[in-house]
Structure formats: structure tokens, C-alpha cells
Amino acid sequence: MKHLKLALLISAVITFAVACASTNTTVSTNNTNTARTASTPVAAIPASDEFAAARSTYNATCVRCHKENGEGGAVELDEGVTLKVPSFKSGHGLHHTDVEFARQIAKGGDGMPAFEKKLPPEQINGLVRFIRKEFQAGLINEGTASPSR
Q1: pTM for this entry
Q2: What's the total number of domains in the chain?
């Protein structure tokens, strides 16, 4: 089962990379001032971006409620119910350890759906690291939280 999940994750990442790399680019030569169009694939996200997969997962599963900026807020659900989604930048999200944060994503609760059947543990841990870097960098003070990074 673990190998199947890993294979699915790898195929999703490869599909995403191929989709992002199918653009044309303009290339200038040093010998002349003319430009030519080349069919060289250009990655939308730099290869050195260690959070590319987690960013993709966040955009696919989290952005609807937690927003692109991680600030959450009032979200109207399909059932006509409004849910107050917490910000990653303040409040209790800053005080959870990485293990507690991953457990919240996996098990859900307080209006948040559980993702343990939709995302493997590696993706959940990647989301935690991405959220810490993207939305909480510099906000966690010594003694305030004890994330186990």
C-alpha cells in the first residue's frame, strides 16, 4: 500500500512538471541581436524549490478555505454554512508542534475535514513544512512554539 501511494505521488508530481514545462521561450544569441523562438521546456517553478510539491498540494486542497495568503477567514461552504477558518499567521496555529499540526490535517476537527484518506503522511508533513516556511517564517518566537522541524 505504501508503494502504491508513493507511485501515485511520483506520477502526480511528474504530470505536474510536464504540464508546467510545455511553454516556448525566446532565446538571444551572443553573435547577433536577433532573437529566435526555441522549444526548450521552461519550468514554472525553479527546480531548487523544495516546496513545489507541497505548494501544489496546498493549492489543490487548502487554498479554498485558508486562502492564498494563509489568513483564512469566513468561508461559505456548499451547504450554506459559514465556517470561520483560522489564520496560519496568528493564534493557535503558531503554538502547535509539527506533529500536532500534521495530526490536525490528517484527522480534521473543528470544521476542518480529515485528509488522512486523501493525502499520504509524506504530503501532510510536506504541507506542514510549507506552511511553516510560507506563512509562519519569523512569527514563531523561541518559547512560543516548539515545532519539531
Answers
A1: 0.61
A2: 2
